[in-house]
Amino acid sequence: MPELPEVETIKRSLQKAIVGKKIKDVEIRKPKIFQGDKKEVIGRKIEGVERRGKMLIIRLSGDKSLLVHFKLTGQLVWVAKGCDTVTLGHPIPYTGTILPGKTTHVIFDIDGGKLFYNDLRQFGWIKITQNSKLKAQKDLVNLGPEPFSKEFNVSYLSRIFSRTKKPIKLVLMDQGKIAGIGNIYANDALFEAGISPLKPAKKLSNLEIKKLREAIIQVLEDGLKYGGSSARDEAYIKPTGEPGSYQKHFRVYQKEGQKCPKCTSSIKRINLGGRGTFFCPKCQR
């Protein structure tokens, strides 16, 4: 599932590509993916692209927005061509070299090109909402603070950690506590901070909390620097159709059996909360 760095990378790319342009038409190939009447967005100008947690917000003229959640395998690909079928110079995961493909479920015809929404697993969605009611959307209202915000401080983390005995990794991935962190960056942040993913959140010391906050920001900044992660089990791509490269800089994620970057121990993998969890048993306590 695309996490904060991936969705932020998509946001920044689309800001350059589609802001200021008008939606001419919407082709809906899989009705369950698109929630709302497409007539409400046709003819509207795209005024901005934002991100909240793991979700994308495309603001339109006339008090309308498109809220996009990629879930596990959602993709947005921008092609600056107006033709019905596009042949790309490189394949897209689960889609191929021709758009629209079998996994293409929504196509936005926009001034100067087309925006394709692909989704292999079909868990993602695009929802029409009013700008004035955006903050009250149930998908957004319960999200925790953004890791790059002022609210994301040691005091806040100390408060939420003190209230639960859950393993710290599960708390980091709880979108109601912190918005945007998923499996990849939770693994790497805990390694960077030297904290076991199994450690109960309420047992973290003030020093550990401080280190963890700094580690979270560091790995997310690295994820942004490298355009997100297109790991071997991820469908994520940039709107250009190109992969991210953070997977070349993983600390421990998907490195089971490999040598720890800090010591001679081997990285171990366990299942925690139904997700693969990677850590160094020597460096992370």
What would you say this structure looks like, in words?
The protein is globular and about 55 Å long. 22% of the residues lie in helices and 26% in strands. The chain has helices at 4-18, 138-141, 154-161, 168-172, 183-193, 206-225; strands at residues 23-28, 34-35, 46-52, 55-60, 64-69, 74-79, 86-92, 96-99, 104-110, 113-119, 125-130, 268-272, 275-279. The protein has 285 residues and is α+β, with helices and mostly antiparallel strands. The protein has six helices and 13 strands. It has two domains: 4-141, Alpha-Beta Barrel (N-terminal domain of MutM-like DNA repair proteins), CATH 3.20.190.10; 154-279, Helicase, Ruva Protein, domain 3.
Order of helices and strands: HEEEEEEEEEEEHHHHHEE
Please state roughly what percent of the residues sit in beta strands, choosing from under 5%, 5-15%, 15-25%, 25-35%, 35-45% or over 45%: 25-35%
- In DSSP terms, counting alpha (H) and pi (I) runs of 4 or more, how many helices? 6
| Side-by-side strand order of the widest sheet | 2-11-5-4-3
Average pLDDT metric = 95
CATH homologous superfamily annotation of the largest domain: MutM-like, N-terminal
